[in-house]
Design brief:
With 129 residues, the chain is an alpha+beta fold. A seven-stranded mixed sheet has the order 1-2-3-4-5-7-6, with helices on both faces. A hairpin with a 2-residue loop joins strand 3 and strand 4. The radius of gyration is 15 Å and the shape is globular.
Length: 129
């Protein structure tokens, strides 16, 4: 699988078509957004979009048409990428069925439940230098 950074000049139609498959709001990524597209066998099969906001990073949208094992691995990629932004926490909505694995591995707590998904908060502890 190939990961690449979204470029609005070239990838806007691809992102739009994926977002039709994964209905979400009509908001578009800004210049401050972090968006990666995922490609396998020359087909774009998903995307990840996060925003850096104040003291935290928020996973705005995530969609992946590949295997469940790869999807779980992508959640780890998202947490690592968010941690690299040097903010205090990551807020992300994830399916309830994998939330326990994510929270055990990365720490964190549940902030909201909506029936099928959970909004979790993962703290990133700063190291003293």
């Amino acid at each position: 699988m190939i990961f690449y950074v979204y470029n609005p000049e070239f990838d806007e139609d691809v992102l739009h078509s994926l977002r039709i498959e994964n209905p979400s709001d009509d908001r578009l990524p800004s210049e401050e957004s972090i968006v990666y597209l995922f490609e396998e066998q020359e087909e774009t099969i998903g995307y990840m979009w996060m925003e850096v906001e104040g003291d935290h990073v928020t996973l705005v949208d995530f969609f992946f048409k590949g295997s469940e094992a790869k999807k779980r691995g992508l959640y780890d990629f998202i947490v690592k990428l968010a941690k690299n932004q040097s903010k205090a926490i990551l807020l992300m909505k994830i399916p309830e069925f994998i939330s326990e694995d994510i929270r055990k591995k990365w720490g964190g707590k549940i902030r909201e439940r909506d029936g099928k998904d959970l909004l979790i908060e993962i703290p990133f502890h700063k190291r003293n230098k």
